[in-house]
Amino acid sequence: MTERKTQTGARWLKWYTIIYLCFIYLPVLFLPLFSFNDGIYVAFPMNGLTLHWWQEMINQPGMIHALWNSFRVAVPVSIFSTILGMCAAKAFTGYRLIGEKVLTGVFILPLVIPFIILGIALLIAFNSYGIELSLLSVGIGHVLICVPFSLFVLKSRLEGADPSIEEAALDLGETPWMTFWRVTFPLALPGVIASLLLTFTISFDEFLLALFLTGNESTLPIYIWSQLRFPAKLPAVLALGSAILIATFSIVIIAEYFRRQDTNLINERVN
Amino acid sequence: MLLSPVLVLMILALVSPLLLLVGQSFTVETGESHETILSLANYQTFFAKPQYLTVLSRSLIISTLVAFATVLLAYPAAYFIAFHVGQNKVKWLILITLPFWTSYLLRVFSWKLILGYNGVINSGLKWVGVIEQPLEFLLYNNSAVVLTLAHAWAAFAILPIFVSLQKIDKSLIEAAHDLGENSLATFLRVTLPLSMPDVVAALLLVFIPTVGDYVTPKLVGGPNGMMIGSLVQVAFGRLDNWPLGAAISVVSMVTVTFVVCLFLLGLDRIKKLAV
Lengths: 271, 275
Prior knowledge:
The complex is a heterodimer. Chain A contains 12 helices and no strands. Chain A has helices at 2-35, 52-58, 61-94, 100-112, 115-129, 135-159, 163-171, 176-205, 208-213, 220-227, 234-260, 263-270. Chain B has a single domain, classed as Orthogonal Bundle (MetI-like fold). Chain B is 75% helix and 2% strand. Chain B has helices spanning 4-25, 41-48, 50-84, 89-97, 104-115, 120-128, 142-152, 154-167, 170-178, 183-211, 215-220, 228-236, 242-274; strands spanning 27-29, 36-38. In chain B, strands 1-2 form a two-stranded antiparallel ribbon. Classes of the chains: A mainly alpha, B mainly alpha.
């Protein structure tokens, strides 16, 4: 009796999860669907298929420029925040820190302050330090919010590694620096790649900080925001959104692949 | 030593900007000479105008609703993945979080396209012949904002809840079953209490950022859907009154912290009563 009840429960849960998945996916999938629609309105019935909007998207110089700007911000941001995240993760896992809980609290602080407030605080700060707003200021803001994510990914990766491997390297006469490059880094590599991709994606998609911190140059989200006001430009934006969708899907799948690689496998290779 | 680069970043790019923000909120520019003097004027302006307080309380109410809606919707799905999918957990988890890596702006905007006057739902229903006139109550109200945000932030609820359910020792659940509890009672008396800390974390993880969201109220909230983020943006944009914007931010930060503390305290009280 109980057994049967549990099974009905599981079946309900399964159906609920499937409906929930539809709720999550449907709005996102309307973007690619209507990017092929032959008409500027997003409404049923659809008018027939066209590749016109995808062509229009490619032919917009403003968009290509914004895309390039986003890369110029997101690539250095992902590298810097991963280096900083690595330093912090190493400190957290390698040593017993005084006030570890307080420090963890400080590091997640950027995530518990609404981004809009972070954005204006940085705006005021750059203004009083006398730093001109540019892609660099956007990048600094992005590093701030990316470091906590990088720290979490790398920390959980390093926690899974056996500390005796590092000790062995040191005992065998490696310098701490060489031990890092030849032992710790290869061990953490899947985490490093995951962190690079994750922080890249966060920076690439970030809007609120960029809104306040960008000067005359616009990143891709700022460009999209400016386009959303014009209904005639909408289908090209939908095409752009679909392109981002496909690109991000691939990046996330690659990131997950690396993150899920078994620690043991790496351990074996090191041994 | 290893922590120093991060600490330098935190001090230069987080602590000092926040202090400058608080500092600026207590200044005001005097008319002709543009000199800044210390003053409480911005706070007086804020608390004197009922509109500001209305927007602040609306932001808090909407974000609270969003937090609870997001967590309630996500919990059963996280539960299903944690306990009922066996080998394919990773696949399900990727499947369910994948849409959240697409552009946030477009995810929010797609709801405007769906709920709009000539949007997907209205045109679809008209096409099929269910309605003659478009339904106007779909877009530009608080429910649209809550729905959109509950969708946009779902990953922030699913992941912590899944992780917490995953950590639960399965033998505790089996023990409850063996001792004759049915599934519902086991859930209420074992699984739910054990996952509670992370449910709370998920609530806060959704509540805090959504209070300051600017995109969603602007796109789907309509003229009466302003939230605190819009006020800050207007102060820094159109009004060009930075000190006032800073004061609005400080007030909302303090209020959010206060609400969070109140919530945690209340939870502690409930826990003690239960014991």
